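Final report, results section. Input specification for complex C-07:
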Amino acid sequence: MTEKNLKHIVIEPVTRVEGHGKVSLLLDEENKVKQARLHIVEFRGFERFIQGRPYWEVPVLVQRLCGICPVSHHLAAAKAMDRIVGGERLTPTAEKMRRLMHYGQIFQSHALHFFHLVSPDLLFGFDADPVERNVIGVARKFPQLAVQGVMMRKFGQEIILRTAGKKIHGTGAIPGGVNKNLSPAERDHLLKDLDQMTAWATDALKLCADYTTEHVADLAKFGAFDSNHVSLVRPDGGMDLYDGVLRAVDPKGKKVLGDVDCQAYASVIAEEVRSWSYMKFPFLRSFGPERGWYRVGPLARMATCEFIDTPLAETARKRLVAAMGRPSCVTMAYHWARMVELVHAIEKVKDLLHDLDLQGTDLVVKGDRRDEAVGAIEAPRGTLIHHYRVNRNDQIEMANLIVSTTHNNEPMNRAVQKVAADCFDGRAVTEGLLNRIEVAIRAYDPCLSCATHAVGSMGLDVEVVDAAGIVVASGTRR
Amino acid sequence: MSETQDGMVTSAKKPQPGRATPASEKLRTGAKGATDTVLVLAWGNPSRLDDGLGPELARRLEALDLPGVKIETGFQLSVEDSWLVSQHARVLFVDALSEGDEPYMVAVVAPSRKLPFSTHSLKPDGLLGLTEELFQVRPKALLLGIRGYLFSGFGSELSPEAERNLLTSLEFVRSQLLAGGFDGIFSKLECRSEAGDDQK
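Structure output:
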């Protein structure tokens, strides 16, 4: 059957994800879903924008890619620029300040996603009216939970403020180090709320773990499919969200990508362009585009790492693995994995705040200048790669950014296809179908803004086009 | 760029109906211990041409070092801003406008329970609604929309027309802050607004 014979259903854009996207479902003549496409309709070319800028501006400039995870871009770019100035062996103070910044970012991002974007689905059910199935609904029925989400996000932003200098557009990380340490007053300010944050994070983890295990019969099938998984890990296999080597495992958990230095990412990962999306499709070169695609993010990190070096998170990881397997290919297990990382992040914050190195004064190192470098980090949504080449005038000559959501491009398409194939009745795009497609995409916490380097807005338009290309139904949700 | 032309904006020059704060004011206008300081909360992307009007106004306002004002900026309004808003009795939201009156428009903002689904597009009325639900306070709030013209592409320079509108807007904000923190504007616009609560 050719593509011309397929019916075309368009859902545009997807709600409660960051940025702007639309979904189309390609149906065969029997009205069964044969393919799903998550279209990315905006393209801004941020990589071109930074060409010609001096390399030391880049860690600040790239934060304007997106207002959701600017710290991740700040740190990935800074890590690349460390190598450009030959300063990749950071001082203990510099590395720990950056790690504190990063764990603050992970904490606030995961808290926001769970409490304000995901919890409505879990607390009210997928079929609840979207008018109520949002954070206002949570605030009304579960006010303490909603306030906790706000205050946890605020706490993470406070960490970013104290380490990066600003809550957004921070300047803390510079090539070869950082430009400030953490004063005792700043440390004490953050320590004040730490126990409360840990308690709330632990509660959120329990809520999510209990929900998943109670509903595992349904969730195990929801948008589930086998995949490879990729993330950075420590060379000893421990989870490390700030630094490490690239590792990939297959659906059976077998390591299919030996631990690879990030500088060589391009030798193991390639990107495919498809005509219907501005977002590329990365894959492992050794497997090719058909079999080499993979998941990144919290669930992938649970698959690739062998242990977590903080006690509460490690206990939680073991429970997740026991219940869902390792690797788990259950899309909805992303939420549970995310909450394991929420707890891990606050445990790391606690360790760092009690580390006297944060009050050190040796902040910057430099060495032999390089012309090309890669910076990689595990951002909240997954592996983030920044690759730059700098000319002799210290200007950026080439930039290539592979953001987390781009890595997850194929998995999101697969999740939508699976859900649509299971739920579409062959006739109408029901509210239930729309809800489930959104829930499946939301599990990946996509930042389409990052992926396309644009800031978008939301709404929901539905268009049904038959095999002849005629619009037979449409709907709008705002 | 955020959409401010969604029916809740009232032009300072050509007043139109807007949503008004209910007459029965059961809620505090600020959290317990809220400061009398006016919160100026501006947002936009400084690398997206005229979308940076809000942050640029904030930057220039900060340089004036006026008393009684706290200035915050962001890419977009976000849920944690609800706590910040709850700590102030009066709030001035500042954003770029892609269409509408020149050089700027001012409107009273009332809380809304109609939330967009994405944190990228949280609007002032939704943020106020969230603030009210979470913290049981309802600050007085105004939206200042500064008219911009160039939003497509990248660049940190404002268009000449937007720059002109920014200067006028800045003078408006400065004079209002020196004259008592927008009290006169609140009174004027609230009188013109239609009575009636939002979809609570």
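The mean pLDDT of chain A is 86. The first strand of chain A starts at residue 7 and ends at 12. This concludes the modelling results for the funded period.
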